[in-house]
DNA sequence: GTACCTATAC
């Protein structure tokens, strides 16, 4: 729209903001009235309109209007920068800022706080530091908005909290935003303890609580599983009357879920007078990890409040289907994703890759993976884990190479996926090569989980002594999962002495590991050490240790059937035994000799 | 006329 035409059409324009400073009576009746479209007035009008355009995501219109303003002042420039920041186009905001400085326009405090938010969005500490220098040059140290945005930028982008702390220390009159920014800085970089330390200092200095600081402090409690402190903040929230503020209430639901207090999460959820989509998503995501079938049930109730699922909901629901390996249900969710046009969402596509892999349809995982316009680290990892669990280690290794070529740097989890895939495919030397490359080429220090993978890699292939040697050479004390990998290998390849050692180490670390006791007693039995076998069993009975029964389930024609060893009841049991006999027959024909040692069970 | 901090997903 042409700026000159703007004034004549302003009355009919649907999104034109109200003019707050109309002409005075004197101006209206002066003999020589000022022209109604003088530059400054137009600039104010245009700035208002630019903001409205951004709010309605009309970017081209905003830029066109901005380009047509004859004399653009700092406010118009700032409106452009904050507009691009508002919609998440941070690099664009930065470009406008550079353009502005090139034209010799000085930024004000509004500009600086907006552009710092853009630096935060770009995760660019160097750009942020440049703006910091500029802010000092223009004497903005005293401005609260500038100081708080600087802190937030450093807290998000800098390697440590040191820079943010430095800014924080120099603020004379810290306000509530300053405190909240520090708490969130620590919490969002995974240091919940650090966040709570700042929160407690805030309380000591008698700063009034506000909804922002409460919800982030609750988040800090969730992240470290500090339920008792979370409950105290919950009480403070009730006392201050913040419960009606949804982000606060939602963070409380999240806290109870993450601290595994599911009955409290559920109760709080149902007692909430108002719930929004995020409340539902929080509960669905919370239950997805602990009890996926409950998660699906909650999802089925969402419609009763007239809410429609978004990407977050569907990601959790897809993950729940993956955990339960319910293909039919997962396919229905996939249909819903396509129907709602969410196919382009990477997080959702990653969840679908995992779901199809866990439901046994690796070809569908691959189809989704291939159709993704942009694959992130998680996409590659999910696909590689999928191939690994299907025993297709060569595909995993191939994908790893492709991923590196595409410019994505692997992390520890990717290496674990490769090592585990090699282990399940018997690619021992290939796996060892990747273990070496991880340390030498990528400078990762192996942790317990990685050592566990390598022990499993060697052990599964029967190289049990080498696996033990690796454990001995570990630079730190191996945990029970590393010993567990060795124990599994000892059991499979009959190394009773090493097996006893591994089992003993696990029981030293965790005396109540029922599975370990069972395996150890089985090792004694297989070795003919019946006296020790009996002693072990007696010990287990005395300690009240009971192995949790392994339950299997299968989905047939939209119905889930579950069963345990020795099941006698259920309409489907006869069918199961029928199939079992047929499979045993097939195995015999294929020449398989069953290992009867493992039939000793509790 | 323009600005800072809070909640959900792989």
TrEMBL record:
Task: Check the record and name the InterPro entries matching this protein.
Answer: E_motif, PPR_At4g14850-like_plant, PPR_rpt, TPR-like_helical_dom_sf
State the Gene Ontology terms under molecular function: RNA binding
Is RNA-binding there in the keyword field?
A: no
Which keywords does this Swiss-Prot/TrEMBL entry list? Repeat
Q: What Gene3D superfamilies does this protein's entry cite?
A: Tetratricopeptide repeat domain
Offer one example of a GO biological process linked to this entry.
RNA modification
The record ties this protein, via PROSITE patterns, to:
PPR
Q: Name one Pfam family in it.
A: PPR_2
Q: Where are the PPR repeats?
A: 73-107, 175-209, 376-410
* Repeat found in the keyword field: yes
The positions making up the signal sequence are none
On the tree of life, the source organism's domain of life is: Eukaryota
The protein in question is named Uncharacterized protein
């Amino acid at each position: 729209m042409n700026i000159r035409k703007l004034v004549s059409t302003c009355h009919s324009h649907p999104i034109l903001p109200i003019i707050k400073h109309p002409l005075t009576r004197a101006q209206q009746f002066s003999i020589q009235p000022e022209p109604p479209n003088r530059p400054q007035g137009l600039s104010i009008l245009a700035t208002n309109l630019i903001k409205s355009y951004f709010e309605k995501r009309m970017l081209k219109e905003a830029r066109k209007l901005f380009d047509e303003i004859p004399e653009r002042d700092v406010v118009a420039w700032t409106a452009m920068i904050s507009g691009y920041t508002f919609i998440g186009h941070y690099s664009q905001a930065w470009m406008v800022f550079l353009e502005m400085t090139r034209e010799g326009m000085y930024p004000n405090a509004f500009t600086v706080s907006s552009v710092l938010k853009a630096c935060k969005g770009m995760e660019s500490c160097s750009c942020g530091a440049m703006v910091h220098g500029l802010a000092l040059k223009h004497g903005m140290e005293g401005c609260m908005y500038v100081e708080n945005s600087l802190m937030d930028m450093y807290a998000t982008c800098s390697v440590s909290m040191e820079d943010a702390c430095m800014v924080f220390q120099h603020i004379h009159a810290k306000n509530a935003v300053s405190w909240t920014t520090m708490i969130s800085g620590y919490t969002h970089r995974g240091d919940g303890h650090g966040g709570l330390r700042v929160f407690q200092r805030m309380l000591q200095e008698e700063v009034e609580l506000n909804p922002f600081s409460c919800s982030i402090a609750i988040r800090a409690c969730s992240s470290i599983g500090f339920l008792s402190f979370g409950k105290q903040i919950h009480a403070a929230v009730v006392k201050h009357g913040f419960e009606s503020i949804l982000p606060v209430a939602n963070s409380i639901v999240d806290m109870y879920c993450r601290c595994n207090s599911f009955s409290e999460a559920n109760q709080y959820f149902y007692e909430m007078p108002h719930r929004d989509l995020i409340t539902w998503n929080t509960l669905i995501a919370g239950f997805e990890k602990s009890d996926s079938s409950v998660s699906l049930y909650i999802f089925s109730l969402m419609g009763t409040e007239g809410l429609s699922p978004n990407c977050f909901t569907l990601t959790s629901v897809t993950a729940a289907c993956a955990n339960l390996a319910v293909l039919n249900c997962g396919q229905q969710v996939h249909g819903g994703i396509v129907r709602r046009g969410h196919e382009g969402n990477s997080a959702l596509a990653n969840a679908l890759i995992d779901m199809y892999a866990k439901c046994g349809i690796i070809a569908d995982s691959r189809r989704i993976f291939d159709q993704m316009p942009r694959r992130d680290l998680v996409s590659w990892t999910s696909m590689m884990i999928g191939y690994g669990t299907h025993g297709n280690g060569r595909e995993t290794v191939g994908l790893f190479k492709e991923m590196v070529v595409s410019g994505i740097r692997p992390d520890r989890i990717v290496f674990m996926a490769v090592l585990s895939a090699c282990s399940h495919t018997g690619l021992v030397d290939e796996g060892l090569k990747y273990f070496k490359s991880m340390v030498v080429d990528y400078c990762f220090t192996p942790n317990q989980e990685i050592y566990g993978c390598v022990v499993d890699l060697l052990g599964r292939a029967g190289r049990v002594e080498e696996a033990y040697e690796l454990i001995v050479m570990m630079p730190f004390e191996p945990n029970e999962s590393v010993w567990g990998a060795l124990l599994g290998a000892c059991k499979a390849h009959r190394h009773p002495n090493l097996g006893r050692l591994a089992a003993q180490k696990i029981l030293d670390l965790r005396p109540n590991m029922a599975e370990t006791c069972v395996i150890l007693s089985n090792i004694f039995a297989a070795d003919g050490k019946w006296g020790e076998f009996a002693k072990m069993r007696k010990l287990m009975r005395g300690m009240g240790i009971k192995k949790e029964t392994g339950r299997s389930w299968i989905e047939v024609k939209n119905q889930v059937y579950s069963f345990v060893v020795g099941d006698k009841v259920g309409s489907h049991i006869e069918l199961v035994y029928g199939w079992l006999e047929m499979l045993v027959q097939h195995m015999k024909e294929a020449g398989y000799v069953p290992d009867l040692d493992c039939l000793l069970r509790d």
